[in-house]
Amino acid sequence: MRSRIRPALATIIVTAWVMTAPASAGAVAPAAAPASSAVDRMTGTVTHRATRTATAADWTSLGGTAISQPAVASGGDGRLDVFIVGADRALWHKSRTATGWSAWESLGGTLTSAPAAVSWGPGRLDVVARGAANDVVHLVFADGGWSRWESLGGTLIAAPAIASRGPGSLDLFAVGVDREIYVKSLSASWSGWTSLGGYAASLPSAVSSEPGRIDVVVAGTDDAVWHKSYASGAWSARWVSRGGVAASAPAVASTGPGRLDLFAAGTDGALWRKSYGGTWTGWSSVGGRLNSGPAAAGSATGIDVAVVGHDEAVWHRALAG
Questions:
Q1: Are strands 169-175 and 271-276 parallel, antiparallel or unpaired?
Q2: Residue 8 domain flag
Q3: What pLDDT, on a 0 to 100 scale, did the predictor assign at position 56?
């Protein structure tokens, strides 16, 4: 993965590229591709309607009709929030609390990409997506209710990613037209866009495992998953390969300090996982039959993964951390 220094973009335009999976590149999964390409990898929207069985055992259907890959967020209090774009292009939401799963509800908006979501603690959610004007649009849940949609500007041609390093902190990530990763951060106010270098072949995913720490992953032009981290007030100097051959943009989640889990669709259409807890494991299959890229959120009790199945419903699986 190449890393180059370029001036930050005043107006960010993001892109992603369809990935292939050559068998010789160190496979995440057997090099036997699914029968159809189901997801627009720039926007995360489902572009092909398949009729095959949705998933394998151990997955649970959450229903819904998704035209995008899902987003998930966990506030650490046992609550899980799942978001998709519905056929009406609005954002749809379903949550799990101590009393069980809610029904799907519309949160409005006119979205042109998959959503991304993060929680910096109980009672707070931030959701972003690409809007009708190709800008970043932002929705907040706080004080027991949802805000109105607001524009954060930009000119996007793909879905944004979002993470939080702690209360009051947000980080947006995107791929520039030069294929470098760019970040825009909120503390007291929003910063401009800053390049993190690299040379990306997918949209990024990001997570904070502890206050002041953030990890970003992306597929490189070799289809491996590449990784960069922020700690002690600075970004790591280089992108590091975590191997594999990803048939989707990767997702990253954490169950706590010093722990990371990477997820990606393999070339067999199943979900694949690689974990860090002091040392890295190899890639292993979690199963399923995906019709979208994965979304993942971690907490002290484990990891929740959501995907779109081949019936266009959202499917969920809880995994040990």
A1: unpaired
A2: no
A3: 56
Interval 256-305: pLDDT, tens: 999 999 999 999 989 999 999 999 999 999 988 888 889 999 988 899 99
19 belongs to a structural domain: no
Q: Which contacts (CB < 8 Å, 24+ apart) does range 220-229 have?
A: 220/1, 221/1, 221/17, 222/1, 222/25, 223/19, 223/20, 223/21, 223/22, 223/25, 224/25, 224/26, 225/250, 225/262, 225/264, 225/274, 226/1, 226/198, 226/200, 228/181, 228/196, 228/198
Give the angle subtended at the CA of 5 by the CAs of 216 and 134, to the nearest 5°.
60
* Domain contains 144: yes
* Number of structural domains the chain divides into: 1
User: CA 318 to CA 247: how far, in whole Å?
Assistant: 22
- Domain holding 171, by residue range, is 26-319
Return the closest-CA partner of residue 49 out of 57, 39, 41, 58: 39
Q: What is the mean pLDDT of the chain?
A: 83
Token readout for 100 is 């069980």
Residues recorded for the chain: 321
With bands split at pLDDT 50, 70 and 90, how would you rate the model's confidence at 179? confident
- Nearest to 271, CA basis, from 299, 303, 302, 305: 305
Residue 39 sits in a domain whose CATH number is 2.120.10.70
Are the beta carbons of 111 and 158 closer than 8 angstroms? no
Could you report the per-residue pLDDT of 62-103, keeping only the tens digit for each? 999 999 989 999 976 788 999 999 999 999 999 999 899 999
Q: Report yes or no on 283 lying in a domain.
A: yes
Rg of the chain, C-alpha, whole Å = 18
